[in-house]
Structure prediction request, 916 residues.
Amino acid sequence: MTDNQIVLELKQITQAYGSQLVVKDLSLTLTQGEIGCLLGASGCGKTTVLRTIAGFEPLLDGEIILNGECVSRNGYQLPPAKRQIGMVFQDYALFPHLSTFDNVAFGLKGMDKATLIRRVNEVLELVGLYSEHARYPHEISGGQQQRVALARALAPKPQLLLMDEPFSNLDVTLRERLSMEVRDILKEYGTTALFVTHNQHEAFAVADRIGVMHNGEILQWDSAHNLYHQPASPQIANFVGEGALIKGIVRDKGKVETGLGLLDGIMTASTPDHTTVQLLVRPEDILHNDDSQVKAKVLRRNFRGANIMYTLLLENGDKVQALVPSHCDHQPGERIGIQPDVRHLVVFPIVLQKREITIRTA
Amino acid sequence: MHQSPAKSSEAPLRGFIHLKVRPSGWQLLTLVIALLVLVPLLVLALAWSEPAWDIWKHFRETLLNRLILNTLILVTGVSTGTLLLGITLAWLTGACNFPGRKIFSWTLLLPLAMPTYVLAFVFLGIFDYSGPVQTQLRGWFGRDAWVPDVRSAGGVILVMSLALYPYVYLLTRNAFRTQGKRALEAAQSLGCSPAGGFFRVVLPMARPWIAGGTTLVMMEALADFGAVSIFNFDTFTTAIYKAWFGFFSLPAAAQLSSLLVAMVFILVALEQRLRRHMRFAQSRITPQSERIQLAGVRRWLATGYCLVVLGLAFLLPAAQLLAWSLEIFHEEFDSRYLGLVSHSLILGLLSAILIAMTALLLAYAGRRHQDRWTHGLIRTATLGYALPGTVLAVGIFIPLAWLDNQLISLSRTLFNVEITQLLQGTILIMITAYMIRFMAAGFKSIDSAMHRVTNNIDEASRLMGLRGIKLLYKVHLPMLRGGIFTALTLAFVDVMKEMPITLMTRPFGWDTLAVKIFELTSEGEWERAALPALTLLLSGLLPIVLLMRETDRD
Prediction:
């Protein structure tokens, strides 16, 4: 198996509940060992996509190809049991009447007892739960249950692993730690995986490729870095990461005139001069500098420990956010000097009407 | 240890007094209520001190083997029947979707409203030799056509399975509803076929609930008196009745009762164990909204199956009762009938109020004292649900009759007054027996309401200046009202339907609807029994309405 062999390919799949389309013309590919993520608010259809890949839901249109074999198309569905797809459910769906060991062993077939025991122990060790093998699901913690669910899904060596909101039932600290652990485990196994979440930190921490979903469509399928620095639409810019969209006008090739002054940087899309645009400004693009000519009024102050997130009002009425080291302490109402440091000029031409300029706060 | 000598000599004594000699009023009260249950059991155990050998000899020669065999056949047959009906119906309405599923999911509980003895006599009325079905069959196929004998073990098992399957159905359906489809999907994602997943995962997961429902069914089958009498199917309950009222040997009745109690306690132990399992297995499972869509012929088969069960267990018998009642209404609806109704109502209401009050006290005691002793006592006090009515009748009659005789001889020696009956002429014995038998239902509803009144609620109220009676009146009572109402309803209906205790311990002139049904059906007067039976059926619908409100109707 070569590293870039395609494992999963969704070809323009469409799905409906009754007359309501929940997934529209959705396509994506995952190569061997890659971890993909569908990121979106609840109700955007991401779980439906997962369940369709697993074979629990029929497909209205399009095709799902798994390792070269079509497993779903309109009128045909390979039964879930025959797909060799592992799944981690949102509520884990551990079998309460079976011990950790038996839960993990459940999907293992056609091997002698010694091989089975070796295999289960190997997977349990991988997720760090070897010592809990005799315990029942209700006797172990939520984080341990999550790892048992992962071990159970990995044990039969699935072609593809699906995870439905795998960390949503855990508290915040555990969520962060486990998401990194899960990535390490999947990478160690070289498992191809696709998971869904509404939490971008999880998506960033675990996935190689992220698809931002909205209303049953993927808006952008890209790496975390590109989603953040080169979002394809204002919607994605708003949804992924923090920051603000401010008014601007494109001037002589690659410069944008804004309330922050004339900005120079790498223009992500070639836009003709004099176009009115929205420009994405991330909080780290604004530096605090008392000597700067550009002044802004502090509207809100959010102390985060190492740094402070300020919401600032520019003189032209635009608002931006600035992430500033926390020794630069200012109170709302104060005017402070700021210096823009925008490397990527992400601009979106204003086409129809003047868009409401929005700010995302954490 | 730097203690003054006076202190050190006092401390252990104080501790001793505190622990052993001065239980609180709540604990004493719980002890008294628990004794109400323990005394009859003790009396039955002591009955072996003078075995009624002559009657035992007769029993052993004629009856005993048959009794044991019949009881075994009945319990195995009814539990198998309720398992098959309960599990299949629960799976269909709990995890699948098919036409009529929503209506069936609650109407399938309706047979709970029908006492087993009512279903039993309606069945005989319809399917017995002289009934319309066999008459019609003879009309078609001639006089010698073979038809299965309805008055047989098979017949009584079928009837009781139809009447009792809702216990298994109700518990199992909740289990399937909360974890059925998701478990099946998890199994499929691990390479199981849907059928394989059902047997490897879904059924084993629901095992505590299935077994819990089944032990309840087994207890009911052991305790049943009315239905087996109507079918002339001798079990321990009918034998106890016969020993007392046929052979006039109370000791023999008591000894038979103690054997039955032994069987019941095996089931109780089993049930208590299962309850612990249920608590564990319930953790961290979220209800699922998706269902398995049945397609094609299968969905109509599902509809048909539910309809047949519901028809046999409820619709057909209810319709037959209605038809008979209309037929005989002008003859039977008279002052005698109204007398029966008023007796049933008085007994029902009186016991319901007593049960609710006692249950409330028990629930408060449990709230005040979280220790093992109090909880053990409360569990004992609510154990009566497992004791068959015939057993309780014997176990309570004996000590109270003894007390009666003591009082009578006391009044003779002290006041030289000759009286024949004091307690035995009153409804005290019946009411006590009812209280013991139906305390659990009342306690459970009030206690679950009590659990909602958390300590934080008390403390929040105190912070806002509510204390004492005012706290009780303004916070506790409104929060407990629903639970108290449920307790009253359940106890009331249970007492209305109760047959053996009433039959065996009622004072002269206290016939009730259930007693009348017993008398009429033992003479085969099915039609005339229809009006009281219909009355009971209607009252039995009350708790079903409550139950439906509590269960997930989706």
